[in-house]
Write a structure and sequence with these properties.
Strand content: 15-25%
Largest sheet: 8 strands, mixed
CATH superfamily: Spore Coat Polysaccharide Biosynthesis Protein SpsA, Chain A
Mean pLDDT: 92
Low-confidence stretches: none
CATH class: Alpha Beta
CATH topology: Spore Coat Polysaccharide Biosynthesis Protein SpsA, Chain A
Radius of gyration: 16 Å
Number of domains: 1
Helix content: 25-40%
Length: 200
């Protein structure tokens, strides 16, 4: 089984409001990511909340997704990743698709492509690329879970991924949105402007 993990615990300090609740195509960012994962066939989904956890939980229909509230979210993204992985600590979970809530536009086809690549290669990590640039979400195999769980909170997941670069599977996708993370009001304006344009 491949599960999914959505990290949505941060304070969104640069944005100035909760990114999980920003609107994208009539849905919140968090609901958009959830919908894509479900459409891709991922039923075991964990959402990690932290800052304004109750407000987000009340505002978004999370369905059957499990919710973990990371009380230590101020310690950084690694603490949220570890909280989510602990929730997915099940021998049946072979890998997780790791999603960031500030990437709301990633396509269902991209998620499916990551899953297919993992099933074909059993690589420790599968990373999408667009025109040679790496993006999100990424898929992480169970073989890396313990290493990620043993990280200090000051270390990022990239520390573990880089150590396994030679065996990582890089998958080229036709989905520029893997590169689009929304950290600031200007990023958000660009996302919505591009989405409204005739070519968007």
């Amino acid at each position: 089984m491949i599960g999914a993990l959505i990290l949505a615990a941060g304070e969104s300090s640069r944005m100035g409001r909760d990114k999980a609740l920003l609107d994208y195509r009539g849905r919140t960012f968090l609901a958009s990511v959830l919908a894509s994962l479900r459409e891709a066939g991922l039923d075991r989904v964990v959402v990690v909340l932290g800052h304004h956890a109750e407000e987000i939980r009340d505002a978004v229909e999370l369905g059957e997704a499990a919710v973990v509230v990371n009380r230590d979210y101020r310690l950084g993204q690694t603490s949220s990743l570890q909280a989510g992985l602990r929730e997915l600590d099940d021998p049946e979970v072979e890998a997780v698709v790791l999603c960031l809530v500030d990437h709301p536009a990633v396509s269902v086809a991209t998620v499916k492509k990551l899953m297919t690549a993992f099933r074909e290669t059993n690589a420790p990590a599968v990373i999408p690329t667009y025109k040679g640039r790496h993006g999100h979400p990424i898929l992480i195999g169970r073989s890396l879970f313990d290493k990620l769980l043993s990280l200090d909170w000051g270390q990022g997941a990239a520390t573990v991924i880089r150590a396994h670069r030679e065996s990582t599977e890089f998958v080229e996708v036709e989905d520029e949105s893997i590169l689009v993370d929304v950290d600031s009001p200007e990023d958000y304006r660009r996302l919505t402007r591009d989405d409204e344009s005739p070519s968007g």
